Every structure is written in C-alpha cells, then in structure tokens.
Amino acid sequence: MDPNDPNSLCLECGLCCNGVIFADVQLQLGENAERLRALGLAFVASKKAEKFKQPCNAFDGCRCRIYAERPTYCRQFECLLLKSVKAGRTDPSAALRTIRTALQRVKKVKTLLRDLGDAEESLALSKRFRRMQRRLESSGLDEETAETFGDLTLAVHDLNMLLAEAFYPGP
After folding, report:
1. ω into residue 6 within 30 of 0, thus cis?
2. Are 124 and 51 within 8 A, CB to CB?
3. What is the rounded CA–CA span in Å between residue 79 and residue 163?
4. In 10 A of CB 10, how many CB atoms?
5. pLDDT one-digit tens code per residue, 72-115
6. Element (H, E) at 53
7. Global pTM exceeds 0.90
8. How far are the Cα atoms of 5, 13, 59, 125 from residue 122, in angstroms, in the given order?
9. Where are the domains of the chain?
10. Of the residues 14, 37, 56, 170, which has the maximum number of CB atoms within 10 A of its CB?
C-alpha cells in the first residue's frame, strides 16, 4: 500500500467487488450493458434495471480487469473506510488492519460454508449464507452440523458488524 495514495487501500481489499459488500451492482442510465457483457460481466435477471452479479467476473486478485471501462457505480463508489482515510480521520495503517480483519472474517465464513457443503465461490457471500440457512432449517440437523451452522451464523454476524461499522456507505 502507498501511504500517500488512499486509493491504494482498494488493492488490499476488494470487498466491494468480491461479493462480500454487494450481491449485485445496478447499471446507471445510459450505460452499455452489451458492452459490459462483452467484457465478461455476468448479469442477473431483473425487471427493474440491468444489474451485474457479484463477485464481479472482472475482479482479479484485488484488481479490475476492465478498470478503464468499469461501470459508473464502480467508478464512484467509496466505502466508509476509504472516505475516512481520505478525510484524515483514519490512519492508513489502521485502515489496513481493518481490511485484514475483514478478510480474515470472510475467510472464516467461506471455510464454514465449505465445511457445510457449499463451495460455490461465484455467488455473493450473503446469498450463499441465506441459501445454506434455508437448506439446513428445512432438514434435520445432526449435532455436528448444527454446531458448524451455529459457528457460521456467528461468523457471518461478526463479519456483518465490521462491514456495517467500517465499510457500508450508508444512505
């Protein structure tokens, strides 16, 4: 990370592109969905607006493969943490520690989902959790599965608390 460039935090994070903060991203009026499809973005069915799914297909190790042609929302989005660093309220090294904590929590959630049989990394984390929750609540759980699901629920809660505190942009 370059301490003189707050935007370099994004290259350490990627939570806005990897399906953790958002499940999908809506295109703005006038954006060319066909062009973005040609660049590899996967769209979700929606009657209201064109949306592409998260994790983004252009996301590649905290880098965007279509950075110069990314959608308007992606160009304009700044998480609370980035805004705080830019405003001088948060030290870049503290922000980096927050990002690393969030990524560790994401890893824990993904590990628990895999332990419960869900390894579908192409689906947003919140959708994976809700799908697992529905599946397990509709079936009889043995003690080990119930314990793992309890651990997963707590891990998702811990992650969501950190996201709400440090990353979500608010209204």
Report:
1. no
2. no
3. 10
4. 22
5. 999 999 999 999 999 999 999 999 999 999 999 999 999 999 99
6. strand 51-53
7. yes
8. 31, 18, 11, 9
9. 6-166
10. 56
Q: Is 40 within 8 Å of 56 (Cβ atoms)? A: no
Helix (H, G, I), strand (E, B) or coil at 24: strand
Which range (28-32, 146-150, 157-161) has the least confidence? Answer: 28-32
What's the start-to-end Cα distance of the chain, in Å?
Answer: 29
CA contacts within 13 A on the Cβ side of 83? 11
In the structure encoding, which two tokens stand for residue 117, read together?
């049989």
Residues 6 or more apart in contact with residue 114 via CB below 8 angstroms: none
Q: What's the maximum distance between 2 C-alpha atoms anywhere in the chain?
A: 54
Q: Give the bridge partners for 26, in sequence order.
A: 51
Pairing of strands 43-44, 24-26: unpaired
